[in-house]
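Dig into my protein:

:::
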Amino acid sequence: NNNNNNNAKGNDDSEKRNNIDGKEVDEEVLHSNNNNSPRTNLIIRNKMKGNDGQRSDAVPGLDKIPSSLPSRILQAALDIKKRNKPFKIHIYDVPPHLQLPTIQDYKYQLETKFVDCLKASEYYEADGEAPDIDAFLIPFQCAEARFKVRDRAAGQVEAETHARQVFDFIRTNYRHWDSAKGANHFFLCGHDMGASIRTALYTAQRGADSNPNHRENHHVHNMIGIVNTADVADEHFHVHQDISSPPHVGDTCATCIQGGHDIASVPYGNPLGYDRKRLVFFAGNLNRGRIRPLVKQVFRGHPDVTLVDGYLAPEEYMRSLYSSKYCLFPRGFRGWSPRLLDAIWSGCVPVVLSDDYVLPLSHWIDWSRAALIIPEARFKSLLDFINADLSSLGERREYLYYHVRNVMTWGKDGHGTCTGAFQFLIRELELKLSP
């Protein structure tokens, strides 16, 4: 239900109420700073399940506004629902020589997936001169440019060169770049370089005016980045401006439970029905980053912690996820990893050991309920944290199943409309651009 039924408060002090997702939420809940009250949690639980207590499958963009949102964000979301016009995005056209072939990589398809979803959605405006365009997408292809060469450093150079060429074409051929000092423009970067691609656009890097106060540098700084690498420690990531995206794992990923299909029909079915014997599980390269080697050193061989230093065959990997209570999510080269989604889909509670990572869509997901977040400095107490959390395991898994996986998954409905992650990224972008 997209309508808000607001009844003015009369002399009898009857409460003003907002209709959210077909359920009335009291104004005092909307504006309360205590979102952990029993009353609010009851509303959240009712929203996670339908009135019959069963899973609620339909998760369009703003038809479900979690009442667990901070009051400021919740009110902004309600204001968005009252807009008199749809949110519109235009993608700049660039010539064929600046368009790169799409890669088929299970970790880095954010850019391709978002653009495909956008072009098929009500938010897309093909006419760049149409009135009331809200946002302009600069079509960088970070991942495609990165994988033109094998070497990581050389790939970074390729991506930066590509971004500069696309940016130079747009700023010299389209007038909208100056319309809001860059603040109504955004870019996508699915590869590990993330928001650092922005620095390639500063005038000094383009051989132009090196004055740091140059007008174009301010415009570049104002752009919004939608990135996988959302890392507070990264000087290029603007935590109050950029958006942390759920990774898109690709439709051809053999090891991914999503597999490009509807999440209700994954090979192993409902993850709530599994008896999980294994306490902690991780499979991947344990020699990457600052924390994985330490975890390997302390816990390898521990009877309660299964560490696979390498990669498992798809079937074995899925069996391991479904038979584990907790799945480790330790940072590698970067803070993010597709393993977060693997854990969510399989109902294995993520254990986040990644201090600076900004978890995706945190306006819509209460990550303190969805994951066990442990400071890296306290990794040696991993099992103490987990054993203390076991009493919350069932509630966490229900929250993952009924809410988080719907928000985080790049899915489609029966009409081919992109749902889940795409819709909530649009909402995040709309919130960023709200006055």
Remarks:
- The chain has 14 helices and twelve strands.
- The longest strand covers residues 278-284.
- The chain has a mean pLDDT of 77.
- The longest helix spans residues 152-173.
